[in-house]
Amino acid sequence: MVNLTPASAASSSPATSPINHSGLVTVQASDEGCNDDPPPIPQPLAGDSRADHPRHVPAGGVSIPVDQHGDVTARPANLVDFAGEPARNGPGAGVKVYDYGAAVSPASSSDDLAGPDRGVYVDSCTTVTSPKSSFTAVGTLTEETTIEIAGDPYDGVNPHVVDADAVATTLGVDLRSGLKTADAKAKLQKDGLNKLAAGGGIAWYGVLIRQISNSLTLVLVIAMAASYGMLDFIEGSVIAAVICLNIVIGFVQDYRAEKTMQSLNSLSAPIATVIRNHGKIDKIKAEELVVGDVVKIHVGDVVPADLRIFEAMNLETNEALLTGESLPIAKHPDYVAPNADCPIGDRQNMVWSSSTVSKGRGLGVVVATGMNTEVGRIAELLRGKKEKEGGVFATFVRKCTDSVKNMLGLVGTPLQVKLSKFALLLFGIAILLAVIVFSAAKWRINDENLIYGICVAVAVIPESLIAVLTITMALGTKTMAKGNVIVRKMQALEAVGGVTNICSDKTGTLTQGKMIARKALVEGLGEITQDLLSSGDWDLLAEHPFDSTIKKMSIVHHHKGRDTVEAFMKGAGEVVVPTLALPEHKKAEIMERIENLAGQGLRVLCVAHKRIDRADAANRALVEEGMNFLGLVGLYDPPRSETKDAVRRCKIAGVEVHMLTGDHIRTATAIAHEVGILGDAMPAALASTMVMTASAFDALSDAQVDALPELPKVIARCSPATKVRMVEALHRRKAFCVMTGDGVNDSPALARADVGIAMGLSGSDVAKDAADLVLTDDNFASIVRAVEEGRRLFDNIQKFIMHLLISNISQVVLLLIGLAFQDRNGVSVFPLSPLEILWVNMITSSFLALGLGLEEAAPDVMTRPPHDLRTGVFTWEVIIDKTLYGVTMGVLCLASFIIVVYAGNGGDLGHGCNHAYNDTCGGVFRARATVFAVLSFLLLLTAWEVKHFSRSLFRMNPEEYAGPLAVFKTCYRNRFLFWAVVAGFAITWPVIYVPKFNTVVFKHMAIGWEWGVVVAACVLYLMVVEGWKAIKRWRGWGSAGYVKNGGVDVEMLTAAATVVGGNGGKA
């Protein structure tokens, strides 16, 4: 019902309980486009919001007195009189609304009200009808009339048409104290998590299909079918067992990797700030919110659920996701929508899940979660639309296409897709090699030719490549999480190791984020401060929040004791001082003092004050103009203890560090010198551009920026737009950059950077959503650890790729040249049997490759320049090395076969030796065993040799190990790889010597003197590999090019850097 209450009657109304979590009041701020509010500060309620007075907030948001009754006349609902223009009807003419749903006269006791009174925003010419009402009338009111509407009961569906207290009553929650944890858990159990229904997720059958449908498995299935077709049940059964083993191992590893990634993603899940358990403020995962929770939101947050707002301060949200409206929408907690069907964009008392808070802060009660939110309904509609789009056939084709892409590995990170395409290329090469084998037999395809062709096809495919990559990257994300870095996008994991420039914030990242007041210049500040501390008679009237573009904020309070309205302002000196009511020479003196304080590394705040008229409280321009100077406060934010060493490590690693800060230029310069971003000595040509203000940098054209010898190391008074320009300037220089950020306005720069890093502690949800990585400790040193981990992963991926491809190249060389060895019937003899190839590829190589994926960072990983991400893992060094080592291994295997067959057996290859053992196959079977042993042992040696592409195996860690036993310590350092090598060595013996098992399954037999050939081949292989590494070190090729740094050995440089770091940076 509508109650037109005079001021005299207000006191007789039942006392209401004002909500005072944060002192939020509805104040219309001027249009300053603020996007970076500070956290809420508890303040007293404004105006006439005492416990014995309801709030009177009509349209326009300014309280007005109530001193008279209005006429109440019942009229039919379809009879509406519109008020005339104020010019015709007198000053202050407006609209009066009568609701006769309860048929209560103006004289009725306010005890008949359905709930606590609240003001309502009513547009002129608007008909407001209560759900209980049958009649509505509109007439003319005087300007001193307050419109009050008693709260109608909440129907559970339309919270925007009733008072917030009615919503709270229906939901059974006290807006001041929130839900109890036990009640929240019960609701969560009943309603489920607050998240949208996932269209995908981890499905075990999807992972299983990926294992079955890869190219290796297809080739093995063909080989199995061919074996069974030729009635070779033993070989067919062994291949079937190998297929099952490969699928089971791959499934377990891949599924664990997926679960690991899912658990790590949950660490960066959105966090909601709730009020529970008698007003206690707590932070929980947004997905744990339930209907009835009281939620605090502020600028930068992503709204975690649909909320009915009941307190707000300058609150605006971006609802483009729902409404398409590009401009933020202001929110008014006391607004009540005229009807349930009004557009979403007009529901000014609601904020919606997944929208973002672009300004201000507020409190709201959750009215919908998960798929019941507005965005959840849209998601459901889109899902249904997608199913209907194009009809049943188009949907079927789309699903089949997506399934094929997923099975072939063409969905994932760029590196995963690239390697999946590489595997498909190898599959094509396998088919080509099989065609070559059949062509060599002049297409007279028999059982043996078919098996030989399949052998060559199997040999060329690195079966464990994708599985090892997935496991390595999953473990890498887990390692980063332990180092306080959460990976939100997997491509960042691949890319972070190649960064060339880091653009970092200062406050809280390079520094501790603790503002310690070191110095103060006090004029009128002491008196005012004492006044503020000693009196509790202050009511907040308005707050004009901080904005990174204007670098100041102001508040307006009413002092009840003096009955004065007083404004206070603080901000950057160069922004505040020009607005002060002082003569120019006095302003110059203040600026000089600011410069002196800033030169000491202090962050200087200028504080000002004045008294104003109450009517001017909402006008920011009037509030902040012509204030009186109170004083200066010099705040010191000390650098983190680990920052200087982290910056030093970046310099050694060839990564440039830039500080982009909002601080004064002299403050920024002092801190940059302190942490080592700026050195003591600087070339004269760079001195003028190494430190710049954002205004100076932004004034340069792109051509002028590109003409600078180097980009600035420090940019002070930096704005979000300056960060974007810096990223673009780095990209034009072909640099690969990291950008850090925490505010809403940092999102464009984070999105445009190659790797965007958001702050986990101080960062906004919007910044986190735009970022690739999230720092859980906001520490610059964690960024450096992420770069190191990224380089380690990149190196390890190169290592196991090289190892797998060396094995494949050697087998292809051996088998293709082996076509020339023909038995008495003119049939090509296998130098390796199909099962020997499968054993080497799936048992020996797979675990070695996984061990290389777990290899720790190389000693010089942070003493060499960043790798070129445009080239990727297949660098020229990798291509040349794998080709050289693979051909060498293949030639040694071939030579071993020739020596055993021709030197020990007179060159007799017997007959039918590809199918089974007979009396003529002794030489061939011993030769195969010798080749199998040579190939297995050379792969074991290669696993240790590729730990570093240029350092000798015998001197791989000279910084830690020296002497003749250093090689053993190096080999034992990676325990997984060590035991994989030991197991590979040990298992070779039973494969060769177990009777029947050797001749029937593997088609080889025990050997004796042939072990001398195996040892000789291993020695020759080590000589080739070590010789090639020595040549690379001598010529400075590839990774060995990092060894020489101006003629100084990198090991010496590392040792010197350690000494420097250990002495606090003093050589």
TrEMBL record:
It is found in: Cell membrane. It catalyses: K(+)(in) + ATP + H2O = K(+)(out) + ADP + phosphate + H(+); Na(+)(in) + ATP + H2O = Na(+)(out) + ADP + phosphate + H(+). One of its GO terms (biological process) is potassium ion transport. Residues 1-18 have a biased composition (Low complexity). PANTHER family: CALCIUM-TRANSPORTING ATPASE. It holds the Pfam family Cation_ATPase_C. One of its GO terms (molecular function) is ATP hydrolysis activity. GO terms for cellular component: plasma membrane. Its EC number is 7.2.2.3. SUPFAM superfamilies: Calcium ATPase, transduction domain A (SSF81653), Calcium ATPase, transmembrane domain M (SSF81665), HAD-like (SSF56784). Residues 19-29 have a biased composition (Polar residues). PROSITE patterns: ATPASE_E1_E2. Its cofactor is Mg(2+). This is P-type Na(+) transporter. It is a multi-pass membrane protein. Residues 1-70 are annotated as: Disordered. Belongs to the cation transport ATPase (P-type) (TC 3.A.3) family. Type IID subfamily. Residues 158-232 form the Cation-transporting P-type ATPase N-terminal domain. It comes from Sphaerosporella brunnea. Its main location: membrane. The chain crosses the membrane at residues 212-231, 237-255, 422-445, 451-475, 800-821, 837-854, 884-905, 925-946, 976-994, 1006-1025. Keywords: ATP-binding, Cell membrane, Ion transport, Magnesium, Membrane, Metal-binding, Nucleotide-binding, Potassium, Potassium transport, Sodium, Sodium transport, Translocase, Transmembrane, Transmembrane helix, Transport.
